[in-house]
Design a protein that fits this description.
single chain, 7 helices, 55% helix, mainly alpha, two-stranded antiparallel sheet, 208 residues
């Protein structure tokens, strides 16, 4: 009795093979090696799909966190964050954190920001230097914040000019201005009030 043979093409290697046309289950691959290779390929495809899904979920989470950070800023740009812009302001509040009880005083916030100077004494000599151990990302954001405030805030400009008149360099005056802005930011966040130019920078107030 002749047995009918049907031919199929292996999806792994492309080889054409024959098998009996019986009622049983038909072979899909020409050999066990091709079957194992197809299984490994399916596993790799599934793993890549899981990785892409995980990366997409993390990207959406970061975008949502950035959106919440921008919408959580105290209106209208408390602490003179208006000249800092949306990205620098988000960096400032993101590095400081959203815990309202994290900093008990403005001095603690300034120390964490790295804008508060360090006084070192040795014998009869006393020097005031910039703080080295600090959050460098936050220090850079405060420096750019102070630089942008020179043209956006008349009070900040007066503070900067007063420091320059007392002999401070450009960078020293910007660090001092950034330290003052961090103190203003702490007062606005602690009292939950909006920034006001007249209250933050009284006209007759000398530079601090």
């Amino acid at each position: 009795m002749d047995v009918r043979v049907i031919y199929r093409t292996c999806p792994t290697c492309g080889h054409r093979f024959g098998q009996p046309d019986d009622p049983g289950r038909k072979r899909r691959y020409c050999s066990d090696a091709c079957k194992q290779a197809a299984y490994r390929q399916r596993q790799r495809t599934r793993e890549q799909a899981r990785q892409r899904a995980h990366e997409d979920a993390r990207r959406r989470q970061r975008e949502e966190q950035a959106r919440r950070t921008r919408t959580r800023r105290p209106p209208p740009h408390a602490g003179s964050s208006r000249p800092a812009g949306p990205y620098c302001g988000s960096r400032l509040l993101g590095e400081f954190g959203d815990d309202p009880h994290r900093y008990a005083t403005a001095k603690g916030r300034k120390a964490f920001a790295g804008t508060a100077p360090v006084t070192r004494s040795s014998g009869l000599r006393t020097v005031v230097v910039a703080r080295a151990a600090c959050n460098q990302r936050l220090v850079d954001a405060c420096y750019l914040w102070a630089f942008a405030a020179l043209t956006a805030s008349p009070g900040a400009r007066r503070c900067y000019d007063a420091h320059r008149a007392r002999g401070a360099t450009h960078h020293q005056a910007l660090r001092a201005l950034g330290n003052r802005l961090v103190g203003i930011l702490h007062g606005c966040l602690a009292r939950r009030v909006a920034y006001q130019e007249q209250l933050a920078w009284p006209a007759a107030e000398p530079a601090a």
